[in-house]
From TrEMBL:
Species, as recorded: Gammaproteobacteria bacterium LSUCC0057
Record field: catalytic activity: L-glutaminyl-[peptide chain release factor] + S-adenosyl-L-methionine = N(5)-methyl-L-glutaminyl-[peptide chain release factor] + S-adenosyl-L-homocysteine + H(+)
Residues engaged in binding substrate: 183-186
Family the entry assigns: Belongs to the protein N5-glutamine methyltransferase family. PrmC subfamily.
Name this protein carries in UniProt: Release factor glutamine methyltransferase
Taxonomic lineage: Bacteria, Pseudomonadati, Pseudomonadota, Gammaproteobacteria, Cellvibrionales
């Protein structure tokens, strides 16, 4: 086997963590613009010196802890491939539960939907891919994240999503929606996990929400009724230990039919309620 072959490069990757082999494959496949299946099928293919040097630079970045999504510049979510950058959170499989629940609701074919704190635009664009007639507003405060969400919107070629720069509801005036969804910051300021794994590289403003992690959720739940149609729904993602507190906030704000759902790992992940 040649020293610069695919097989040799993967064997020498020596990345840390449980996903080391997968990470090495993803990086090399991205570099060569081939599938991971190709890597296994043609391990004897030789890489050029330039390709080897590029791959080694990517491996060094991954060894430092930098997320694979930031290195390659994109991440899969739902059925989409979305551009990623350090200005936004990396879309996670757990958040697909928000999309699933939203699609289960019996909304009108032209429902008005708001995605608060859209980041890459993942939730809004996933919903648009399934409900092309929904009128979706994707709100984001950070200017760089707004640009990224708009880039993803153009890439997904959807005209039913409007990306708006706004501090939560501030730029929406008196607009009302049939559904509001949000995956807001919900980590406590002192949480030790902020220094671990991919989270250590993600923007704190998209992760942390006050001393107890509930500051942004409180604001969203308190203000949502002013922007919901009668009978409209609010659906939020939250932390694994926040389900009871979030349900209490929903009920205190006057929401009915409040319920939660667990993700595929059995972790309480979302809460939904209806405004009457």
């Amino acid at each position: 086997m040649a020293v610069n072959s695919i097989g040799a490069q993967l064997a020498a990757a020596q990345l840390p963590g449980d996903s080391a082999a997968l990470d090495a494959q993803i990086l090399l496949a991205e570099l060569l613009q081939v599938s991971r299946t190709y890597l296994a099928t043609w391990p004897e293919r030789e890489l050029t010196a330039v390709q080897v040097a590029h791959y080694q630079r990517w491996l060094a970045r991954r060894r430092s802890g930098e997320p694979v999504a930031y290195i390659v510049g994109h991440q899969g979510f739902w059925s989409l491939q979305l551009a990623c950058a350090p200005s936004t959170l990396i879309p996670r499989p757990e958040t697909e539960l928000v999309v699933e629940q939203a699609l289960e609701l019996a909304l009108e074919p032209t429902a008005a939907v708001l995605d608060l704190g859209c980041g890459t635009g993942a939730i809004a664009l996933a919903l648009a891919s399934e409900r092309q007639r929904w009128q979706i507003v994707a709100v984001e405060r950070d200017a760089a994240a707004v640009q990224l969400a708009e880039r993803n919107r153009r890439h997904c070629a959807t005209g039913c999503v409007q990306v708006v720069q706004s501090d939560w509801f501030a730029a929406l005036g008196e607009r009302r929606f049939d559904l509001i969804v949000s995956n807001p910051p919900y980590i406590e300021a002192g949480d030790n996990h902020l220094a671990e794994g991919d989270v250590a590289f993600e923007p704190r403003s998209a992760l942390v929400a006050g001393a107890d992690g509930l500051a942004d959720l409180r604001h969203i739940i308190r203000c949502a009724p002013q922007h919901l149609q009668r009978g409209g729904w609010l659906l939020v993602e939250h932390g694994y230990n926040q389900a009871a507190a979030v349900a209490g906030l929903f009920e205190a704000a006057g929401f009915a039919a409040v319920s939660g759902r667990r993700d595929l790992n059995g972790v309480p992940r979302t809460t939904i309620g209806r405004w009457q």
